[in-house]
UniProtKB/TrEMBL annotation, chains A, B:
Enzyme's top EC category: transferase
UniProt xrefs under Pfam families: AA_kinase, ACT, ACT_9
Protein name as it appears in the record: Aspartokinase
PANTHER family associated with the record: ASPARTATE KINASE (PTHR21499), ASPARTOKINASE (PTHR21499:SF3)
Top-rank taxon, per record: Bacteria
GO BP annotations listed: homoserine biosynthetic process; lysine biosynthetic process via diaminopimelate; threonine biosynthetic process
GO molecular function, one term: ATP binding
EC id: 2.7.2.4
Catalytic activity line of the entry: L-aspartate + ATP = 4-phospho-L-aspartate + ADP
Metabolic or biological pathway, per its Swiss-Prot or TrEMBL entry: Amino-acid biosynthesis; L-lysine biosynthesis via DAP pathway; (S)-tetrahydrodipicolinate from L-aspartate: step 1/4; Amino-acid biosynthesis; L-methionine biosynthesis via de novo pathway; L-homoserine from L-aspartate: step 1/3; Amino-acid biosynthesis; L-threonine biosynthesis; L-threonine from L-aspartate: step 1/5
Residues annotated to bind substrate: T47, E74
Alphabetized SUPFAM superfamilies for the sequence: ACT-like, Carbamate kinase-like
Length: 407, 407
């Protein structure tokens, strides 16, 4: 007998009929002898309806009251799912975040979980009940309702799984797993049976939006095996866990990409200690997030400095950089907001040489000019002109034979 | 400076625009230097929408989960009202029943308030905040959400006013006060400035459905002055309090009536101790509520026994009564479900004789046959054929000059 924490998102519980389907799924896991804790989101559309009511009233809703408002969305779902389970003969009990009790800090709308007291949940599980918990919400030390931010139900599920020492945390969603790359770009992209937490983090942050990145971090930190699977189709989904001996022997797990990149370059900056901070400090103070950073020392003891930002922040970042260039006595500032990023991700890189050169060779073979390169232990990212996105991803997917299962 | 508890019902907060109007009203009371606690219901239609979702899923929803579900309705309103207040520059803080904390028993969907811990509310009032509380809900000793039953927001307001020792509890509704009788029946029915708790209880239980009867009882018990007034029009409304010297010097405060009555008679019951219990016991065991009861001893030492029930219970009560008649050896059972009840209510009756005879004379003058009479200290009720309702009420309203303000 296993203890399983399951999370069903807004689409999976979007109608009362679908809530009935979720109850059937949960019942199936109970019938196999498992203890089940279910975390649910608000019915799809409900959170937006509530936000709409608030915006009818004010442009600047109080964050505390906004959390009181939107947290009702999940509360509706937990009650309905318990009714559906009991109607099928499965005793169930619902809990709001406050009732569990999921203690968070007081950062309304983006609270972080500090502690989970799962005594009530444990008691109900022992009594043979399915426990249904409202995702995305908690309570602060003053008893105020908090929310973890949009999509935070994944985090609730993982945190509960960690606190309960669950055997597996299953995230049900509208895709049936994690793919080698976006199937809309590469038609023979393949579902991965397994992937490591580290790979998933690199995939997620680079645009494969299957799971909340905080949930993956949390799962990795507390070593909670995480499975992504479809609410609507049968299947094993993708298991996200630590690398083990059974792990597929792949060099590359997947190809992530990001369409909304822009790059900025400051040329001929007199080289001196602290120059990176002088350039990037004002950018970060303006709340612009910097992704890749590359610095070259030129022969005349000046330095060239290039970094990428989200395309929405391009104009703002360019203005700031021009001002810094004046102050630092730099020669020139330029930028390009028609670029994208392609990344190969795989723990296999650690033990295999030659992957980077195969990547560069493949792109060169297609006539794709690389504008920027950045590498980490399990990832190689390149920046190229945006027109090459599909061509580059497809060429790399084929070159590394990702459509085939390893062994 | 006074402490005022206000309650706004579902119609008063039925749209975001109306919630804005409520915020304006509350702001007006704050501007006059009052501390204000506001109790709100769910936006009109919302509770029914939630019940509809539940009935899509099951015919027999768990009462606990039903309360989790419907309590979200008021939670939405408290958040929106706080936003509206803060947008107008009035600091505000919302509380669910559980957050206040309004401790109830565990009778889901019809819980009774056991205790109110108002420390948080007091702290917010001292800090100059408007406190907005979700009506109709509480929390039991296990931390489960409970509801007080439909319309229970009035009870929340009164209970909070009692716990906070408020100067007045104002119930905002869609009528502008308590009237001498239903204005749809008597066009010159007059709004009462004041009425006593006892009169209000008699009026409410007899069909003037302005206020929840439990809320009036509660207010009377804890001596909380209660004011009924309109959300939509200006005006003083009607103050419900204990009799005082300033109280209007009226003989009669109002005329209540009830359309849905039925009467049952058992004739020729051999008179013996306990006969009333033998007749009414089985009726009450069948959950049929009995209103008026009249017993006459006939000359042959048998007794005749008449009582009234709600018209919906007529057939059930008649069946039970026929069975009892057989067992008791009664001569006959008959009934009539085309009757109504008219009641004069007024604390003035206590000190004035002749009111009953004036009532009977007035009805006789219109050719209305009285079928049954029952009196209490502050009420005289008569049962008449249903066709005489309008005629009887109008004649009595005129005879007692209720359209005129006393003095």
């Amino acid at each position: 007998m296993s203890l399983i924490v399951q999370k069903y998102g807004g689409t999976s519980v979007g109608t009362t009929e679908r809530i009935g389907n979720v109850a059937d799924k949960v019942a199936g896991w109970r019938d196999k002898g498992n203890d089940v804790v279910v975390v649910v989101s608000a019915m799809s559309g409900e959170t937006n309806r509530l936000i709409g009511l608030a915006s009818d009233i004010t442009d600047k809703p109080s964050p505390r009251e906004m959390d009181v408002l939107v947290s009702t969305g999940e509360q509706v779902t937990i009650a309905l799912l318990c009714m559906a389970l009991e109607q099928r003969g499965y005793p169930a009990r619902s809990y709001t975040g406050s009732q569990v009790h999921i203690l968070t800090d007081s950062s309304f709308s983006k609270a972080r979980i500090l502690d989970i007291d799962n005594q009530n949940v444990q008691k109900d599980l022992s009594a043979g009940r399915v426990v249904v918990v409202a995702g995305f919400q908690g309570v602060d030390e003053h008893g105020s309702i908090t929310t973890l931010g949009r999509g935070g139900s994944d985090t609730t599920a993982v945190a509960l799984a960690a606190a309960l020492k669950a055997d597996e945390c299953q995230i049900y969603t509208d895709v049936d797993g994690v793919y080698t790359t976006d199937p809309r770009v590469v038609s023979d992209a393949r579902r991965l049976n397994k992937i490591t937490f580290e790979e998933m983090l690199e995939m997620a942050s680079l645009g494969s939006k299957v799971l909340q990145i905080r949930a993956v971090e949390f799962a990795g930190k507390y070593n909670v095996p995480l499975r992504v699977l479809s609410s609507f189709e049968e299947g094993e989904g993708t298991l996200i866990s630590y690398e083990d001996e059974e792990m597929e022997d792949a060099l590359i797990s997947g190809i992530a990409f990001n369409r909304d990149e822009a790059k900025l370059t400051i040329l001929g900056v007199p080289d001196q200690p602290g120059v990176a901070h002088k350039i990037l400090g004002p950018i970060s103070e303006a709340n612009v997030e910097v992704d890749m950073i590359v610095q070259n020392i030129a022969e005349d003891s000046t330095t060239d400095f290039t970094f990428t930002v989200h395309r929405n922040d391009y104009d703002k970042a360019l203005d700031i950089l021009k001002q810094s260039a004046d102050e630092l006595g730099a020669r020139e500032v330029n930028g390009d907001n028609k670029i994208i990023k392609i990344s190969l991700v795989g723990v296999g890189m650690r033990s295999h040489a030659g992957i980077a050169s195969k990547m560069f060779e493949t792109l060169a073979g297609e006539g794709i000019n690389i504008r920027m390169i950045s590498t980490s232990e399990i990832k190689i990212s390149v920046v190229v002109d945006e027109k090459y996105l599909e061509l580059g991803v497809r060429a790399l997917h084929e070159a590394f034979e990702l459509e085939k299962s390893p062994q």
